[in-house]
Amino acid sequence: MKTILAAYSGFIKGTGSSILSALQDLPSGLWPCTSKMEKHLQVISVMQWVISFLALGAACTALLIYIFCTDCWLIAAIYIAWLIFDWNTPKQGGRRSSWVRNWTVWTYFRDYFPVRLIKTHDLLPSRNYIFGYHPHGIFCFGGFCNFGTEATGFSKKFPGIKPSLATLAGNFRFPILRDYLMSGGICPVNRNSIDYLLSQNGTGNAVIIVVGGAAESLQCTPGLNSVTLKNRKGFVRLALRKGADLVPVYSFGENDAYKQVIFNEGTVWRSLQKKLQKMLGFAPCLFFGSSWGIVPFSKPITTIVGEPITVPKIEDASEEAVDLYHAMYIKSLQCLFDKYKTRFGLKESDILHIH
């Protein structure tokens, strides 16, 4: 009983090496095997994130409305008042929590796939950066694990650099979910938020933008190395305006987490997906994984952070300048992919398709 209590205390405080290590002293008859229990914890850690991303915002909104209609309406009223007061916080650097970023649950999340972060070059804390993350995948597991938590040791590998993963601004309109996302250093992918991080928050900031966005997620499927980038120049223009260096990032295995039913162009279903994408800001995908359909496949995800491209500060950059640095970025991403592809399960003949 004391061992169980110690395990629970360590999990809540986030100071124990893991729940598993505290429970290993229990009689072996109580557990089928250590590795099996560890795998269950890994599945639970991934599922809590998937369910949180899909349903936490809607569930908390419904709960808030329900509480407002009960005798406890004052609690809901106070929270709504605070929400209004705090509304612009996500656009002003958010509310990062190193405690949340270091939760033990994220190590189980990391080990489920597993997720790895590989550094190729040093980043100077005296500069600001825009990381272009590719590909999107369905849930961007590699992006979240590497930049929204400390499970892969980002702060140790890049000392002095503070990562901010950018996601849909709509997520920050939901109660509780907005605070959960901000605690990981996640910010809205809009101009106000990114401008603040790159111009009013000092140096050593790295904003991670999933360049392909919702359109790219509609094309992701296991074994496909494809990115949506040819006509995505907004992040380059932003980098020039702020003088932030561009860093290409590629995650091998990101597309292998789920299988997806891909509808051909011109079909009714594809047209419906595109319409919903414009309305909602994200693309509704018909995907499935291993257990229960929603649990992703346990496939390795390896994220390579490439060499930074030095970008000058040009307030009103010409189209020629934007095209130049966009071309440099594409070439750098292509070289990054070609250099590391054979190390992570791909063939020498595999190519990166850029759309």
UniProtKB/TrEMBL annotation:
MF (Gene Ontology): diacylglycerol O-acyltransferase activity; retinol O-fatty-acyltransferase activity
One GO BP: triglyceride biosynthetic process
Keywords of this entry: Acyltransferase, Cytoplasm, Endoplasmic reticulum, Glycerol metabolism, Lipid biosynthesis, Lipid droplet, Lipid metabolism, Membrane, Transferase, Transmembrane, Transmembrane helix
Membrane topology, record value: Multi-pass membrane protein
Enzymatic class: transferase
Pathway assigned to this chain's UniProt record: Glycerolipid metabolism; triacylglycerol biosynthesis; Lipid metabolism
Domain of life: Eukaryota
Catalysed reactions listed for this entry: 1-O-(9Z-octadecenyl)-glycerol + (9Z)-octadecenoyl-CoA = 1-O-(9Z-octadecyl)-3-(9Z-octadecenoyl)-glycerol + CoA; 2-(9Z-octadecenoyl)-glycerol + (9Z)-octadecenoyl-CoA = 1,2-di-(9Z-octadecenoyl)-sn-glycerol + CoA; all-trans-retinol + hexadecanoyl-CoA = all-trans-retinyl hexadecanoate + CoA; 2,3-di-(9Z)-octadecenoyl-sn-glycerol + (9Z)-octadecenoyl-CoA = 1,2,3-tri-(9Z-octadecenoyl)-glycerol + CoA
GO cellular component labels: endoplasmic reticulum membrane; lipid droplet; perinuclear region of cytoplasm
Annotated compartments: Cytoplasm, Perinuclear region; Endoplasmic reticulum membrane; Lipid droplet
Residues that span the membrane, as ranges: 73-89
EC numbers on record: 2.3.1.-
Family annotation (InterPro entries): DAGAT
Keyword Lipid metabolism: yes
Family: Belongs to the diacylglycerol acyltransferase family.
Protein name (Swiss-Prot/TrEMBL): Acyltransferase
Gene: DGAT2
